[in-house]
Amino acid sequence: MEGIRKSFEANNRNRLIGMFDAKRMPDFATFRDQVSQLFTQYESFQVRYHVTQTEQDGAFGSIVAEFVLQAYAVADRQPDLRRRAQLHLIVAWDGTGWKIADVSPRSLFQ
Length: 110
Hints:
The protein is of the alpha+beta class. It has one domain (2-109): Nuclear Transport Factor 2, Chain: A, CATH 3.10.450.50. It has 3 helices and 4 strands. The protein has helices spanning 2-9, 13-18, 28-41, and strands at residues 42-57, 60-73, 81-93, 98-104. The protein has a 4-stranded antiparallel beta sheet. The chain is globular, with a radius of gyration of 14 Å. The protein starts with a helix and ends in a 6-residue tail after the last strand.
């Protein structure tokens, strides 16, 4: 979760996208495009989260967190954004580190 926060707040789309497992995540290309669009529309972000649950079963795990994303529009092309959701991440060990294999709700990143 901290990596997600830092990626948003550093306005680093590539770092954020790199946290996700492109091979395991269903419909990764669409998700990647949604994240890219979000970074195009907004110039700065602020993230708050509170982890409420974690579980691990071998090479897989899950994280549940209350997540708040605030985004500030590029040159007033559109209103600022504020989204709040219970974010659920499925993570998988890829041999060198943990990657996010799925996330819901994905609408948080649109």
